[in-house]
Design brief:
heterodimer; A: 17 helices; flat; B: Rossmann fold; six-stranded mixed sheet; four-stranded antiparallel sheet; 10 helices; 10 strands; binds adenosine-5'-triphosphate; binds magnesium ion; ATP binding (chain B); nucleotide-binding (chain B); transport (chain B); P-loop_NTPase (chain B)
């Protein structure tokens, strides 16, 4: 099987899996108990087979068109096959996805009308929310799932839904199969000696890649826009443009007034959160930078090859530990230990403290600093070290006066990346730093951070729309901070790369 | 000029191994003080390896192992009580590729004197830096920008800066591994001029691939071949009337 065939089959499989995902997964998981429309997986499978057939047939046609002189073909046979296959897959799966989505929204609106008609006939009134619930239940009943309630109206609607939806499924399947078959014949007709199948299929593949990149970019832009939108909402609606109240206010208790009415702009001062965030970040960096840097120096300049071979992966395993594990480690082991140590020395330490969270976060960040610093220290040319040794410098002098200054930009950017991780870290602080927004710079007290407050706002029992304002605004501020840190770090790294290239 | 030709470095039956691979297979040489000694020979024959034995730079290579005796002023440099760091302060080295530190020109030159505590005052240090840069024939080019980074100089200037850096440590022996391979003819001429002057104070050992250069700057020449010194004699003799057929072939470019 050549490369193109492999690509073709992989593309087809992925397409089938993505577009027919839920049904196929359900079918695979539970072949006997599958109660969705069996027509859907069957159709998708057919399209898949048709695409494979298009590949084989297309290739065969190009070979026979060449009449034994393959060198006459503009494109190698596999490209003809690939071209046919891609079009069949796109036509089939594409139609399926589009029709499926359109059909579903059409069915939903039909059901809405049906419900309205039923209500009118029965002379009943119903809130929109309740109507939605009823429709949802009807659908659940039709699909054999558990509904919130069962009554004649719902059962009637369920029957209607099953009927309309059955038609929709048939229509969607027929249309997509039809399109696939059409594509099969159209591409088949095109294949010939002069046909530039390679260029065409490469164009298609390029478009697919472009779409993948586009999805990633659009998602980012979408998230960013919604962040900015909600932040603006909050800035206008609650703060009335008094951004200073958010940025410089010292009282954080955004939900204290919501039950009696509006959010109080004097109680959304984020200073305690940022102070807490920065204090924990500083503690974390006090742990991570020296340890990480020294580890990197040891690994790059002192460790023998064999030690390095196992020590470096070990450090990197540290980076693979989920932060939630660090979190409960901090809360269950480190925080009480610090408190006991404090009690022993006669110092009063809170059960949850900035110190505990910061220290554990520092441990979490060690591998980032050490691994990145190790890379940049290794990138310092051996010739510089030799130059220093050749002048009679010791290893320590060489490292301190030549290697570290040369690697400094890279180390700085490693530290900046570490800081941006610390600022954005959530799990550890949620568990180990506390929730009270008290403004303090005492690391032994309970503090809270930006990320913790976002979690509290979103998970709290306040209505999401109300809580979203301050949460989004905090998130946006955090985003700006980490983005700035990352940009500075990247710029430094880039500059540093140029220095030795 | 009346030159005392004391023996500065003696090597006896030196073998160097990189892991299993024997790169130097028994070299015995006497290197004279106040003399420029050239190492010539085909690529990979072990010139650099042997040169690096003379200031124990090979210690920095994990797999490298040296046997035999090398004496500097009659003292075994591989003896237990010898600190390679101190040795390298006495036996300086200039590398094939210019390798200025990413520091200012001044700090590059001051690096050695600082770590060895050669200067008592700032004025002292200034004097050492200026003297070294003058000797390396680069003072006039850089005297107005001593604070500029050394890496910003041209390749030839960088190499002369590295030479200045090596001189500033006041070594007794200067080892140069193809110091001119990155330089243009003018810079090469300047460096050769410099080597010529250095001879008054130092023993200079230079590895070169240029026969003309070896003939121009050196008084003694050693011809290396496959980890052995096939011939070691007065430069004039090597280039006019070599004893060994291989040497003859090499210097006339008919090697093969
Ligand atoms: N760091 C090292 N590790 C392993 N083998 C090495 C190392 N350095 C040199 N060698 C080997 O030792 C032999 C001699 O190398 P050396 O660098 O001394 O040659 P050279 O005469 O200086 O060559 P050139 O003229 O190309 O610089 C070569 O076979 C080389 O492969
Ligand atoms: Mg060499």
């Amino acid at each position: 099987m050549d490369r193109n065939t492999t690509i073709a089959i992989i593309v087809a499989i992925i397409a089938t899996a993505v577009f027919g995902g839920s049904d196929i997964v359900a079918l695979i998981r539970n072949p006997d108990g599958y109660d969705g429309p069996a027509m859907v997986p069957a159709t998708l499978l057919l399209i898949f087979l048709l695409a494979l057939a298009a590949f084989t047939v297309g290739r065969a046609k190009s070979v026979s068109a060449a009449g034994g002189h393959l060198e006459n073909l503009h494109s190698r046979p596999a490209y003809h096959g690939l071209y046919a296959m891609l079009w069949v897959a796109i036509a089939g799966f594409g139609t399926f996805v589009v029709m499926d989505a359109l059909g579903l929204s059409y069915v939903t609106s039909l059901m809405g009308e049906e419900l309205a008609a039923q209500l009118k006939a029965g002379g009943r009134e119903m809130l929109q929310i309740e109507q939605n619930l009823v429709l949802q239940d009807a659908r659940r009943i039709a699909e054999g799932r558990v509904a919130s309630a069962v009554d004649p109206l719902r059962e009637y609607l369920a029957a209607t839904f099953a009927e309309i939806d059955g038609t929709r499924v048939v229509a969607v399947c027929a249309a997509s199969l039809g399109m696939a078959v059409l594509a099969f014949f159209m591409t088949f007709a095109k294949i010939g000696v002069a046909f530039r199948a390679r260029n065409s299929s490469e164009r298609i593949l390029r478009t697919i890649l472009l779409m993948a990149a586009g999805i990633a970019i659009l998602t980012t832009v979408g998230i960013l826009l919604s962040l900015i939108g909600e932040t603006l909402n909050f800035t206008i609606g609650v703060l009335d443009w008094r951004i200073d109240k958010f940025l410089f206010g010292t009282t954080w208790s955004p939900l204290s007034g919501v039950h009696s009415g509006d959010m109080d702009p004097d109680k959304v001062g984020a200073v305690p959160l940022f102070v807490g965030t920065f204090m924990i970040t500083i503690i974390a960096m006090l742990v991570a930078v020296p340890v990480g840097l020294f580890a990197a120096i040891y690994l790059s300049d002192f460790a023998s090859k064999s030690v390095r071979a196992w020590a470096k992966p070990m450090l990197e395993i540290l980076a693979g530990i989920p932060t939630v594990v660090y979190g409960f480690f901090a809360a269950i082991t480190v925080a009480p230990a610090i408190r006991d140590a404090g009690a022993w020395m006669g110092v009063d330490v809170a059960a949850q403290s900035a110190l505990a969270a910061g220290v554990v976060m520092g441990v979490m960040i060690i591998p980032f600093i050490s691994s990145l610093s190790d890379d940049v220290i290794n990138a310092v040319p051996q010739s510089l070290r030799d130059g220093s040794y050749g002048l009679g410098a010791t290893k320590a002098e060489t490292i301190r006066q030549v290697v570290l200054p040369a690697a400094l930009p890279g180390i700085v950017s490693a530290v900046l990346l570490g800081i941006s991780r610390a600022v954005g870290e959530t799990m550890i602080v949620v568990m180990a730093a506390g929730q009270g927004a008290n403004l303090t710079i005492n690391p032994l007290e309970e503090v809270t951070t930006v990320t913790v407050q976002i979690v509290m706002l979103i998970l709290g029992d306040t209505d999401a729309a109300t809580a979203a304002g301050p949460a989004y605004t905090l998130g946006f501020t955090l985003f700006v901070i980490t983005l700035a840190l990352n940009l500075v770090a990247l710029r430094i790294v880039r500059k540093y790369r140029e220095a030795y290239d | 000029m009346d030159q005392t030709t004391d023996i500065k470095i003696v090597s006896r039956d030196v073998h160097v191994y990189y892991g299993e691979n024997e790169a130097i297979k028994g070299v015995s040489l006497e290197i004279e003080d106040n003399t420029v000694t050239a190492f010539i020979g085909p690529s990979g024959c072990g010139k650099s390896t042997f040169l690096r034995c003379l200031n124990r730079m090979n210690d920095t290579i994990d797999v490298c192992r040296v046997t035999g005796d090398i004496e500097l002023d009659g003292h075994d440099i591989y003896a237990r009580e010898i600190d390679p760091v101190q040795l390298r302060a006495r036996v300086g080295m200039v590398f094939q590729k210019p390798n200025p530190f990413p520091k200012s020109i001044y700090d590059n030159v001051a690096y050695g004197p600082r770590i060895h505590g050669l200067a008592d005052s700032k004025a002292d240090l200034d004097a050492i830096v200026e003297h070294s840069l003058r000797r390396a024939a680069i003072w006039d080019e850089v005297k107005d920008r001593l604070d500029a980074p050394g890496t910003g100089l041209s390749g030839g200037q960088q190499q002369r800066l590295c030479i200045a850096r090596a001189i500033a440590t006041a070594p007794e022996v200067l080892l140069m591994d193809e110091p001119c391979s990155a330089l243009d003819p003018i810079a090469t001429a300047q460096v050769e001029e410099l080597i010529h002057e250095l001879r008054e104070n130092y023993a200079v050992v230079i590895v070169t691939h240029s026969m003309q250069q070896a003939a121009r700057v050196s008084q003694k020449t050693a011809f290396f071949h496959l980890g052995l010194v096939l011939e070691y004699d007065e430069t004039g003799k090597i280039f006019t009337n070599p004893d060994h057929e291989k040497t003859q072939q090499y210097i006339t470019g008919r090697f093969g």
